[in-house]
Amino acid sequence: MSNASDFVIERGILKRFMGTDTHVIVPDGVKAIGNYAFRRCQKICSVQLPDSVTKIGDYAFQDCTALEQINIPAAVESIGAEAFRNCRQLQKVTFAGNPEEI
Prior knowledge:
The structure is a single chain. A five-stranded mixed β-sheet has the order 1-2-4-6-8, with no helix packed on it. A four-stranded parallel β-sheet has the order 3-5-7-9, with no helix packed on it. 0% of the residues lie in helices and 28% in strands. By secondary structure, it is mainly β.
């Protein structure tokens, strides 16, 4: 399970994940997943985002080659360019809401 030291968070924006977990639970209170935040985290299989997230940045999960599933909370209004680029194992993306911009 991820702990606080695995995340670099500035003003509510998750800037970088530095952990080694395969199943990541992003801490409550994070408002946005920054550009490239999970880039090249090749061991991650699943990500659980808190309901507080409203934005997923450009290339946020680029090259997460083992990522299989992610749940997008209802509060998410936009998903940046190529947020899931080269996520070859991604099989399930669940949207709880209806993002205005993908």
